[in-house]
Amino acid sequence: MNFSSDNVTGAHPAIVEALAKAAAAGPMPPYGADPISERLNARLAEIFEHEVAVFPVATGTAANALSLSALVPPWGGILATDEAHVEVDECGAVEAMSGARIQIVPGVEGKLTPEALAARIAPIRLGDQHHVQPAAVSLTQATEAGTVYTPREVAAIGAFAKERGLRVHMDGARFGNAVAGLGCAPAEITWKAGVDVLSFGATKNGALAEEAVVFFDTALAANFLYRRKRAGHLVSKMRFLSAQLDAYLADDLWLKNAAHANEMATRLALGLIDLPGVELDHPVDANEIFVRLPPGIADGLKAGGFHFYDWGAPPADPARDATLYRLVTAFDTAEASVDAFIACAAKAADSAADASPAAESA
Ligand SMILES: Cc1ncc(COP(=O)(O)O)c(C=O)c1O
Prior knowledge:
The chain is built from 15 helices and eleven strands. The two termini are 36 Å apart. Helix 9 (175-182) links the parallel strand 5 (167-172) and strand 6. The chain has two domains: 13-253, Type I PLP-dependent aspartate aminotransferase-like (Major domain) (Aspartate Aminotransferase, domain 2, 3-Layer(aba) Sandwich), CATH 3.40.640.10; 254-352, Alpha-Beta Complex (Aspartate Aminotransferase, domain 1), CATH 3.90.1150. It is globular, with a radius of gyration of 22 Å. The strands form two sheets. A seven-stranded mixed β-sheet has the order 1-7-6-5-4-2-3, sandwiched between helices. It has a four-stranded antiparallel β-sheet with strand order 8-9-11-10. 41% of the residues lie in helices and 15% in strands. By secondary structure, the protein is of the alpha/beta class. The structure holds pyridoxal-5'-phosphate.
């Protein structure tokens, strides 16, 4: 009944079980010197088909801020969309940890494009000591608009970045949802497309609290141990973060969880779209739906006990007379909850139609 976010969920039983097993295993060396942590590099290298340097941290904000701090100098600029989590929802953590500044670029369906990046950079005097110097691009996969960059779109940004001497970071808080949605190899939307470092999310997709910074250019990770410790993100009982990631990756749990969440989002969107006055703002490529609901439907759903976020003010354009809402599905969203949501919305739409002046005068 709760469609407000993929972090209102619990945790997947296999991950909880892995934690219990790690706890029962007795003493283990701290600070990542345990056998569970030590096998993560090899495991992720296999999944990404590339050498990697992996650093577990507890939050997505830390993963983003720390990884970006390893890519840019304090006088650098980080190009990201106006909706990017690093810009909107991290309380300036990226700026605090890197010293750099986020340079906002208008997103198209939540995505950066080489054209938009070029336009943003054009007025900046490169090499001028008075100007912040663009140093990295940060893209979010899946995006904050619920869309997904195709391998070709990431590669176009990667090529642009390379040409301009920019590093590339990917905020993959919903990376599993993107890979499951695209059905591609993880390599296709990361290092093969020019991504230097990935914030690989697990929390939203079945873990309790676990994100990993994954470097594809391992030279960039040379001092990362110190950055992580200095930021207070070297967890002493690291094995418990690592056990979550280990279980998340085992038997493709991360992809199965994400595929289920995506499937539930598609089912929900398809069930809503034909109701009167309902409109999607973006394609539903992953597990988030941005939908305009007329007041009758939104109120009916809220009265029916469904939870979801109001995503901003009603539109100024009276032709689109419906407020934007965000609905998020997750690894544990039950098909029955989705169907109940759709049925409640349909019932509310019928009631609203019966109460309309046209129906009264008929
Ligand atoms: C796109 C994106 N990046 C990163 C995060 C990680 O945030 P947190 O620091 O809350 O784990 C989130 C969580 O909402 C997110 O949606």
